[in-house]
Amino acid sequence: MFKMTLWFATNNMHKKEELEAILKTTLKIPSDNGLIFNPDETGMTFFDNTLIKARELQKLLKIDEPVIADDSGLCVDALNGRPGVLSARYGGANLTPFQQNTKLLDELADAKNRSARFVCAMVLLLSADRFFLVQETIEGEIVKKSEMKGEGGFGYDPIFFVKEYGRTLAQLSAEEKNIISHRGKAGKQIALLLKTI
User: Fold this and answer.
1) Among residues of the chain, what percentage have pLDDT more than 70?
2) Is the predicted pLDDT of residue 41 greater than 80, yes or no?
3) From 32, 71, 77, 110, active-site residue
4) Which of 46, 54, 104, 114 has the most CB atoms at less than 10 Å from its CB?
5) Please, which contacts does 105-114 make with residues 24 or more away whose CB atoms are closer than 8 Å?
């Protein structure tokens, strides 16, 4: 298995815990070294933002160690793919996840088409010009406000219904979620790549 220090370009402890469980290894994040990590996510796609984050962290580290970064979001068909790459900042940077979920449900209102997907682009950056990128999805539907359920997960998980399980992502156990989620699928591909380098 991969022996070098593996860095994850995030400040999000939920994401760190999820990816550690998926990769079955310990990850270091910027705060572990007292680094202030706040990249300007100006990309137009999930892929663009993963590279921005990975390159920013590698620059901060000033050492040539592998960096994983991901960018993910919720794409709702009836909202023309929004919130998409702006999922984390949807409705403004200071909204809580509950407020963001409520805003999205209000905007979707009684739309009949409630199909949506979570998208996760994940990059393994080895050097400026050597990297591997994977992008995965999980398909589902947005519930109505009265059906928002679950204490697990984070972000939009309580409003994202997974038909195969008959529950929202927030109602699934961490193990169940990691098998089927966008991040789980992308992380498994990265884990396979790590075995080859």
Assistant:
1) 98
2) yes
3) 71
4) 54
5) 105/142, 105/143, 105/144, 105/145, 105/148, 105/159, 106/145, 107/79, 108/76, 108/78, 108/79, 108/142, 111/78, 113/77, 113/78, 114/76, 114/78, 114/141, 114/142, 114/143
**Which residues are registered as beta bridge partners of 168?**
161
Domains of the chain: 7-194 (3.90.950.10)
- CA-CA distance, 197 to 193, in Å (whole number)? 7
State the Rg of the chain over Cα.
17
Is 71 noted as a catalytic residue in this protein?
A: yes
Residues 108-145 pLDDT 10s: 999 999 999 999 999 999 988 899 999 999 999 999 99
State pTM to two decimals.
Answer: 0.91
Which pair of structure tokens corresponds to residue 128? 């400026």
